[in-house]
Amino acid sequence: MNDEYFMKQAIIEANKALADEEIPIGAVIVMNDKIIARGYNQVEKLNDSTAHAEIIALTSAFNFLGSKYLPDASIYVTIEPCLMCAGALYWSKIGKVVYGADDEKNGSISPNKILAQNKDHWPFHPKTTVVKGIMKTECVELIQNFFRQKR
Amino acid sequence: MNDEYFMKQAIIEANKALADEEIPIGAVIVMNDKIIARGYNQVEKLNDSTAHAEIIALTSAFNFLGSKYLPDASIYVTIEPCLMCAGALYWSKIGKVVYGADDEKNGSISPNKILAQNKDHWPFHPKTTVVKGIMKTECVELIQNFFRQKR
What we know:
The structure is a homodimer. In chain A, strands 2-1-3-4-5 form a five-stranded mixed β-sheet. The longest helix of chain A has 17 residues, at 3-19. Chain A is built from five helices and five strands, in the order H-E-E-H-E-H-E-H-E-H. In chain A, 40% of the residues lie in helices and 20% in strands. The first copy, chain A, is an alpha/beta fold. In chain A, strand 1 and strand 2 form a beta hairpin. Chain A binds chain B through residues 43-44, 46-50, 55, 58-59, 62-63, 66-69, 82-88, 90-93, 108, 112, 114-115, 118, 120-121, 123, and chain B through 43-44, 46-50, 55, 58-59, 62-63, 66-69, 82-88, 90-93, 108, 112, 114-115, 118, 120-121, 123.
């Protein structure tokens, strides 16, 4: 199974958020080619502005593994993680971060070119591989359609 | 009641972490001069590398108020928040962040001079007031004693 397969699973999670009228962002965490945790944006439902897809998936993965570090796991998330989520992924020491669409407003890298260009300010863990743009078109459309309908 | 009073309360929380052999970091969230939420580092106990004092206190405050934003609240935390916690505080739109000791290794500002000097890269919300150095000596000693005893 490849990156596209798992990103499709993250999109399925994002659609659960959409069904709840949340900003459609989803994530899955994968180990040994198996999904060990899932999460989708629940900011409105939980009345918690930090209840992002990645945070929910991380908490679930820590609980599932009984481990506070995830060096052998990968997270697939439909949108570029924000600074909070990049920080949470840093602490988890997750092996790989794969995201679909850039987030030029709230992303941890895209709006902060300084962070992205200087390894001393790179927000992810130095041992974490970061891959972007997997199923980008689908991930961008998901968000764009949501905000278009809101207007 | 002043900043020192509430920072002492955060130190009481940090000592609860210490009693559990966790890195002693504590936080309280205050609204209208009353403590509405408390938290201390529970990374080891919860096997969750993101279970920082600030995150636990924030979740508790959101639940208590039934609101995902905290513009009229202040958080008092013994150590400078990390990038994850600064990001979480950003999303909460908290009114004021007060911390004791700088964290030159994992802090969101101290190790990243670029972030601190450029408002485009400032990690906290633009409407959040940040105050540092309240009861600094006590907050520094708390952490230093912990690591000294670990060695």
